[in-house]
Amino acid sequence: MITRLLPGSLFEHLGLREGETRHLPARVSRLVIAEEQRSEQLIGWVQLAIVATFGALYALAPRPTDANTMFEPVPVGLSAYALFTVVRILAAYRGFLPGWFLVLSMIADVALLFGLIWTFHIAYGQPPPFYLKAPTFAYIFLFIAVRALRFDPRFVISQGIFAAIGWLLLVAYAVGETGTEVITRSFVEYLTGNVVLLGAEFDKVFTILMVTAVLALALHRGRATLMTAVREQAATRDMRRYFGAGVAEAIVGRETEAAAGDAEARDAAILVLDLRGFSGFAERNAPDEVVDVLTAYHALVMPMIRRHGGVVDKFLGDGVMATFGAVSPCPTAARDALSALCEVVALAPEWDRQLAAKGFAPLPVNGAVSAGRVVAATLGSADRLEFTVIGSAANLAAKLEKHNKVAGTSALADEATVRLAEAQGFDGPVASLGGAAVAGVDEPIVLYTVGAGAPSRRPSEPLREAEA
Description:
It is rod-shaped and about 110 Å long. The protein is α+β, with helices and mostly antiparallel strands. Helix content is 55%, strand content 14%. It has two domains: 2-240, no CATH class; 245-467, Nucleotide cyclase, GGDEF domain (Alpha-Beta Plaits, 2-Layer Sandwich), CATH 3.30.70. It has 17 helices and eight strands. The longest helix has 46 residues, at 198-243.
């Protein structure tokens, strides 16, 4: 009988309904189930708080003078329910919450409250209709409301059905024990005597069902919002992994929808990294080995970039382009970019050890930084957008990175960037290389090596032929 009234899936498992699983990817479904497990843990703690409150009120409240002090089922009932609630909390944290256990928990809620209400007529030496007027009846709405923490209307509906059936059983017991003569149609007699007004009791059942229906409707709407929120949470998490946390948060936090052509000028610094000799390495080795080395390389340098406030703009094979102060304004962008480059240079021996452990020859990391005015822009079309940085600083950083091979260096920056970084508090190791002709740059520029142990020469020394 009950299994026909309740949603069948309630007895099967903790999780999504069949229709929901068809519209959600498995990874999103796992997030929803994880949220439901946390909800069940919260429900357990709320129930334990309710039991503790009932126990405290019972212990502190003075006993009615007309009550039978020899008959006190409340301590026993509350103790048994508290023990069951503790078991339920432990089961929730262990992930053991099959449908039958949750149904048993809902039945226990109703059985505790209505069982204690049933004992009222014994405690006060009155006929059974006496307990139908117990004010404790109102607590049933608390037990129904607790199920709303699950954001699943099935559980509120089930709790409401159990409550309605439980109260009907109490009414039936009162009439059955005292006979049909106890039924009255007088409201005054109902309030002043130990009789049953069926209309009043059906009002209580109707109220239980209506409150249940309203809560279930609200949860049905709320569950749709939960599904959307979890899906968007998963999408935002993936977006952070694809675009970097700074770009993802800038997209999510926009007041208006992103559109192609959105642009904002900012003072920023650009860091470009590259593996020297990677093209030949990729030709000589299997694709899976190439990917393995790239993954290890990115895992080494990306935390350094993030640690200094950088945002990875893009991966270009073995190349990495990171921005500082482009996604959001930063008064120390040049300092932070040079600090990140110094850290990359310092960890070159660790990178060589990782390659040697895999049986590969060294692949030196080259890097360069340039700071200046850039435009953080959204490019593309209405259905395909890309965030990128445009400006002379980005172009110069890429050219300086390539110039490392010409200059025999591993990390470079132009003089303007170094001076700006020093004004922002940078005190890392740099050494001047003097003026140099950089491919793609019209005029010679003064370059600096960056990082401890970098080769240097006096500005007065003659340029090498390749730099002239």
